[in-house]
Specification:
With 245 residues, the chain is mostly helical. It has a domain at 10-107 and 118-141: Topoisomerase I, Chain A, domain 4 (Orthogonal Bundle), CATH 1.10.132. It is 75% helix and 0% strand. Helix 1 (10-33) runs parallel beside helix 3 (78-103) and helix 2 (40-72) packs antiparallel against helix 3.
Length: 245
């Protein structure tokens, strides 16, 4: 969603665009909460949320920059600049809220149900950055907490199974695309044969037209010669008759 200037009210339109993007992200949070954390769909929605949050941060930064530029150019009053700054602060507050909501899935829960606690108490870090999340098995997030080796192995087997199912679906799609490509290739070959036949027929027709045209020219020339001979004969007869008379 690009921030495009469309006139004096462009800032307000861009601000409304940020608000709309915020609502879309929150809707994605709702969709993600309905998926299992080990599912591929959960990882896909998380990736989309991460991308949109970066987009949201960029657009909020642009709004703030435009306020500073407008203030320096005196195109808006000081009161209006302050009002817009407060609106930007509200957006930044929403941004922090989304980041906290996005990071909640990385906080492990205690067995006593008192909430989340840091992995630092267990000697490992409970936070992962974006690159580490993308390197998780199958692109899905591995849940944190106290898990045995068998639990982790079972989770990995589940992810591998989901990957196999996804690869099987992809294989079927590729097979259908291959069949479609064959059909298209056969159709192209047929069309090429038709074009070749048309080209050959056109060449033959052109040759016949040239031959017929040549023949017509010959006949026309012969017809003209016959007229000349007739005239010569008639003149000869006239001369003979006149000579006798």
């Amino acid at each position: 969603m690009a921030l495009i200037s469309v006139g004096e009210d462009s800032w307000a339109i861009e601000h409304e665009g940020c608000e709309k993007l915020y609502r879309e992200i929150m809707e994605q949070f709702t969709l993600r909460s309905q998926e299992q954390k080990m599912s591929v769909e959960y990882a896909r929605i998380s990736s989309s949320i991460r991308y949109r949050m970066k987009q949201f941060s960029s657009e909020v930064f642009q709004l703030k920059e435009k306020i500073m530029q407008a203030s320096l150019s005196k195109s808006i009053t000081q009161q209006e600049a302050e009002r817009r700054s407060r609106m930007v602060e509200v957006l930044r507050s929403k941004e922090r809220q989304m980041k906290e909501l996005f990071s909640e899935r990385n906080l492990p829960a205690t067995s006593s149900g008192r909430g989340a606690r840091s992995f630092a108490d267990m000697g490992v870090s409970g936070w992962r950055d974006d690159d580490e999340e993308e390197n998780a098995v199958g692109g899905a997030e591995l849940p944190s907490g106290n898990y045995s080796i068998n639990d982790v192995r079972q989770q990995q087997q589940t992810v591998v199974k989901q990957q196999d199912e996804g690869l099987e679906v992809l294989s079927k799609v590729i097979s259908r695309q291959k069949e479609l490509a064959k059909v298209i290739g056969n159709e192209v070959d047929i069309q090429n044969d038709i074009i070749d036949d048309l080209t050959e027929n056109m060449e033959n027709t052109d040759t016949r037209i040239r031959r017929e045209t040549k023949q017509i020219g010959t006949i026309v020339r012969k017809d003209k010669t016959w007229v000349y001979w007739m005239i010569i004969i008639l003149l000869f007869i006239a001369i003979v008759v006149l000579g006798i008379v």
